[in-house]
Design brief:
Elements (H helix, E strand, L loop, with lengths): L1 H22 L5 E11 L3 E2 L2 E2 L1 E4 L9 E10 L4 H7 L6 E4 H4 L6 H26 L7 E4 L10 H11 L10 E4 L2 E2 L5 E2 L4 H10 L4 E5 L3 H6 L7 E4 L2 H12 L11
Parallel strand pairs: 5-8, 8-11, 11-12
Antiparallel strand pairs: 1-5, 1-6, 2-3, 4-7, 9-10
């Protein structure tokens, strides 16, 4: 009996040691958490986000903030378990962000290229909305941000810069969404984290791509109403309503 008890004790100790060791092994997941927000009407990294030449750029009292998601890898079991108690964070399989067969550097390069393309499209769409004014050149530059989801807020920022009226109404408005050359606003990922980041930045409204509204409603943040936008025109209409103290078309509205 004594030897049996020693065997059980030894087995328990081995199990405990293995459990502790496993807790500190990297997990095959990455963490999504709220990233920084950037005012497209202001500066970032020591330079203006949007630069206009060939026309006078107007000033605004409010802000139009693009939102981002931070990705954290190398998680151990304890860090992963902590996510279950934080609704602003989410675990996703590593392959969702870093597909198999591609290095982290390759993914980063692709994200950078995607962002640069979204910047170019934002300029094209904004100038088209303004009638393609002659001689006007616009550049957009945001450091250390990848992917196409800033397209909407960059487009709105350019239009605001080239419009005498203050489209913000002096308010902080955040949002997200891709933009196609026809002005369609497309769906993006990371809505829960972007809503949380917008709230932290003091936003009083969030522009949500129409295709993301169901997810946004499931992850609504108290005190941050959401406007449903399917096109750049929808977004401009929403801004007009918000600036006037009205209510734009909301996510979930019939």
């Amino acid at each position: 009996m004594k030897s049996r008890g020693l065997l059980v004790l030894a087995g328990s100790l081995v199990t405990a040691v293995l459990a502790v060791g496993t807790a500190f092994l990297p997990m095959p997941y990455v963490l999504l958490e709220p990233g920084p927000t950037v005012d497209t009407l202001g500066a970032n990294g020591g330079h203006a986000v949007i630069t206009v030449s060939g026309a006078e750029a107007s000033a605004s009292q409010g802000q139009l903030r693009l939102t981002t998601v931070e990705v954290e890898g190398g998680l151990d079991l304890w860090r992963a378990l902590g996510v279950w108690f934080d609704r602003e964070e989410a675990l996703v399989p590593r392959e969702v962000v870093y597909p198999a067969g591609k290095s982290d550097q390759q993914v980063q390069q692709e994200n950078t290229a995607s962002f640069q393309e979204s910047e170019s499209t934002a300029v094209t769409v904004a100038l088209k909305k303004l009638g393609n004014p002659a001689g006007v050149k616009v550049t957009a530059d945001v450091d250390d941000i990848g992917g196409p989801s800033a397209g909407l807020m960059l487009t709105l920022g350019i239009i605001d810069k080239l419009t005498p009226a203050d489209l913000t109404g002096g308010k902080i408005i955040a949002g997200t969404g891709t933009v196609d050359e026809d002005g369609t606003v497309g769906a993006i990922g990371g809505i829960p984290q972007k809503l949380a980041g917008a709230k932290r930045a003091g936003a009083v409204y969030f522009l949500v791509p129409a295709e993301n509204c169901d997810e946004a409603l499931r992850n609504a943040v108290s005190g941050l109403p959401m406007a449903r936008v399917a096109t750049v025109d929808d977004a401009l209409t929403a801004l007009t309503a918000i600036a006037a103290g009205g209510t734009p078309t909301a996510c979930g509205a019939a």
